Amino acid sequence: INPSEEQIATFKAAGEAYAKQKAEWALLKDAQTVTADGKHFELAANIGTPKDVEGVNDNGAEAVGLYRTEFLYMDSQDFPTEDDQYEAYKAVLEGMNGKPVVVRTMDIGGDKELPYFDLPKEMNPFLGYRAIRLCLDRKEIFTTQLRALYRASVHGKLRIMFPMISSLEELLQAKAVCEEVKAELDTENIPYSKDVEVGMMIEVPSAAVISDVLAKHVDFFSIGTNDLIQYTCAVDRMNQKISYLYNQFNPAVLRLIKMVIENAHKEGKWAGMCGESAGDQRMIPILLGFGLDEFSMSPISILPARKLINSVSE
Ligand code: PEP
Ligand code: MG
């Protein structure tokens, strides 16, 4: 209220500078993401609902690197049916016109609750019954989602990703459920794509540490720094009081990231990142140096990230 002339001038100048910056970024919408020395990196977007796809395309993303499907469950009065889910996945795959779409299977639990699902009260919900743990325990919830995903796979380039994997056993169990679902669809003569890549998030330190072993069993990794930082540094990602410890530049976090990328490459697999760090301008040059293949971020970060990547050498 009642800003001074000086304040008005300052904010006007900032607004104009931002508009100019945005116009510059917009020129890069259909440009390649290639470093000055000619190496291509994939710039992808994180989404929560099919409605977000418009913003993904408007910002020139080359893929969806993380579709957080839990919003389908959270915006519903009951568990979404197979058909409801099929429609949502189909809409995203079609909206992306054949560009890759990484769909993460349900990551409920931790901070994400469902009003119709009585999750047990826990002392440490972030370390508790959630995500893939819940899916492997309540297999009917998991198979419904996987059936919907495989059915939708004929409409685009689907990649399936499991959250919160902390051991090889969990990964193998989750993959076995995918095989069961595909066998079921075969019996029912329901078509699905035979080229669906299956990958996992690296967001638990135990998974990062055995990523050499895990890499043999996946098509790709996507590093979830939001949780990886939390679990590596033992710092609650929601607790402001200790947020000074929540640091993506902690050498322990950087070492894990580097190791995961190297272990993926040793097995000929690709490694992406879908945590907030992937869109961070200070982090991107480091990740380029580590050889990260795919960067997935909120759509508004894509064009600034492309500008940065296009301006540096690997
Ligand atoms: C992450 O943990 O980095 C991540 C992308 O997942 P979410 O933020 O949904 O936990
Ligand atoms: Mg996470």
Characteristics:
globular; 8 strands; 8-stranded parallel β-barrel; binds phosphoenolpyruvate; binds magnesium ion; 44% helix; 314 residues; alpha/beta
What is the fold's blueprint, element by element?
Layout: H1 5-26, E1 42-47, H2 53-58, E2 63-68, H3 70-74, H4 82-95, E3 100-104, H5 131-137, H6 139-152, E4 157-162, H7 168-187, E5 197-202, H8 205-209, H9 211-214, E6 220-223, H10 225-232, H11 251-266, E7 270-273, H12 284-290, E8 294-297, H13 302-311
Helix pairs in contact: 4-6, 5-6, 6-7
The protein binds phosphoenolpyruvate and magnesium ion.
Describe the structure.
The structure is a single chain. Helices cover 44% and strands 13% of the residues. Helix 4 packs parallel to helix 6, helix 5 (131-137) packs across helix 6 and helix 6 crosses helix 7. It is built from 13 helices and eight strands. The chain has helices spanning 5-26, 53-58, 70-74, 82-95, 131-137, 139-152, 168-187, 205-209, 211-214, 225-232, 251-266, 284-290, 302-311; strands at 42-47, 63-68, 100-104, 157-162, 197-202, 220-223, 270-273, 294-297. By secondary structure, it is of the alpha/beta class. The model has no long low-confidence stretch (mean pLDDT 96). Strands 1-2-3-4-5-6-7-8 form an eight-stranded parallel beta barrel, surrounded by five helices. Helix 2 links the parallel strand 1 and strand 2. Bound molecules: phosphoenolpyruvate (PEP) and magnesium ion. Magnesium ion binds at residues 203, 224, 226-227.
